[in-house]
């Protein structure tokens, strides 16, 4: 049976229109149903080295889980390419957030020491990974290849302002409230934080996709000047402007396979959660490392997409992906966790410690200084990557 393919229409040299067929990768079609089969086989089983074939089964679950995450983001990219910018980056961010929330809820429902702070650790790790690791890597790759990178200040600063407000409401203020003991919110405070986070994210999405959509378009798609040449675009490259666009059938197929991947990822995370907790305890690592591992796993495929865009000198797309992921991680995860806390036992620890607050404040200040000029070089890349390295080092050796 032939596989569905994208069928974009590209202008030829002579002005005639030709169709370019891009086949869908077979692995992307095979992974989702395979992941569902592995989930059905391992559901309810105890995975561990002490069980016959336990280590083999655990390895199979781990490999399948990673493959399902990669496939999910691949299919989200296909759908995103179909709908275009900036809706595409929004779809990617939401898909990644669904996976992140599913992983957090599955691990929190398993209980154990550190489960109450898992949401905080994961959201903070996602913030640091995106704003320092992903942004720094994109700046490095783009600057090494194109010397100086250009992006829209209006859209990037708007995203950063929203992200700073969300991070403060969700991760900083709980450490200073007095209604409940510890770095937690009371029920009313948690409800307010969830509603505020969802509202801010919703307004940002409206601005990004409707009201001021041009703020988030890549620089090469902006008019050169008003006048006779206004229809031409700065720095437009034929391979970017006329990239193959998936057909409707391909996009629908990817949407269905994306749903399968999301179900498989959440289920496999639930199956593997006891083994993950045991592995972290066995090596003597802090509990926060679990959150870092979840964030790294979820953001890895999207990081690859952002780096590819930076290599093509489309840093605005990279920043849309990176900051959009951090916005969705807080703006959607916190409300979801707030609702889920009704059924979860134990307190929900959200407030950061002093060390984490310093890293958060440093990241915000440096990122503001990076995006304010609208241009960036390899120096900004080095600064962000060094902060990211410090975050990882302190997470393992607090």
From TrEMBL:
The keyword Membrane applies. Pfam families: Na_Ca_ex (PF01699). Residues 55-209, 254-395 form the Sodium/calcium exchanger membrane region domain. It is found in: Membrane. It is a multi-pass membrane protein. Keywords: Membrane, Transmembrane, Transmembrane helix. GO terms for cellular component: plasma membrane. Signal peptide: none annotated. It comes from the Bacteria. InterPro entries: Alkaline_pH_Ca-Antiporter, NaCa_Exmemb. GO terms for molecular function: potassium:proton antiporter activity; sodium:proton antiporter activity. The chain crosses the membrane at residues 53-75, 87-111, 123-144, 156-176, 188-207, 251-269, 275-300, 321-345, 357-374. This is Ionic transporter y4hA. The gene is chaA.
């Amino acid at each position: 049976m032939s596989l569905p393919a994208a069928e974009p229409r590209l202008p030829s040299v002579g002005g005639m229109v030709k169709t370019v067929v891009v086949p869908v990768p077979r692995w992307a079609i095979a992974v989702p149903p395979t992941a569902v089969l592995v989930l059905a086989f391992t559901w309810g089983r105890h995975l561990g080295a002490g069980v016959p074939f336990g280590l083999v089964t655990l390895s199979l679950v781990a490999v399948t889980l990673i493959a399902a995450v990669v496939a999910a983001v691949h299919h989200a990219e296909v759908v995103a390419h179909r709908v275009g910018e900036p809706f595409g980056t929004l779809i990617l961010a939401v898909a990644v957030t669904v996976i992140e929330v599913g992983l957090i809820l599955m691990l929190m429902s398993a209980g154990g020491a550190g489960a109450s702070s898992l949401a905080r650790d994961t959201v903070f790790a996602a913030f640091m990974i995106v704003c320092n690791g992903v942004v720094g890597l994109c700046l490095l790759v783009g600057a090494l290849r194109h010397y100086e990178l250009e992006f829209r200040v209006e859209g990037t600063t708007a995203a950063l302002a929203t992200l700073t407000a969300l991070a403060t409401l969700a991760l900083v203020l709980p450490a200073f409230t007095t209604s409940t003991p510890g770095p937690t919110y009371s029920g009313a405070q948690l409800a307010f934080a969830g509603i505020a986070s969802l509202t801010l994210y919703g307004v940002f999405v409206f601005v990004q996709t409707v009201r001021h959509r041009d703020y988030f378009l890549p620089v090469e798609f902006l008019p050169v000047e008003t006048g006779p040449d206004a229809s031409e675009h700065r720095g437009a490259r034929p391979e970017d402007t006329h990239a193959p666009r998936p057909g409707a059938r391909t996009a629908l197929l990817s949407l269905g396979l994306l749903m399968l991947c999301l179900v498989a990822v959440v289920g496999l995370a639930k199956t593997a959660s006891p083994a993950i907790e045991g592995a972290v305890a066995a090596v003597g690592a802090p509990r926060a490392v679990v959150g870092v591992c979840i964030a790294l796993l979820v953001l890895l495929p999207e990081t690859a997409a952002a780096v590819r865009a930076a290599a093509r000198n489309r840093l605005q797309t990279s920043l849309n992906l990176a900051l959009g992921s951090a916005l969705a991680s807080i703006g959607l995860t916190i409300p979801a966790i707030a609702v889920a806390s009704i059924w979860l036992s134990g307190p929900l620890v959200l407030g950061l410690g002093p060390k984490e607050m310093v890293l958060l404040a440093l990241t915000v200040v440096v990122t503001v200084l990076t995006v304010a000029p609208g241009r960036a070089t390899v120096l900004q890349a080095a600064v962000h990557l060094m902060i990211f390295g410090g975050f990882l080092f302190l997470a393992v050796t607090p």
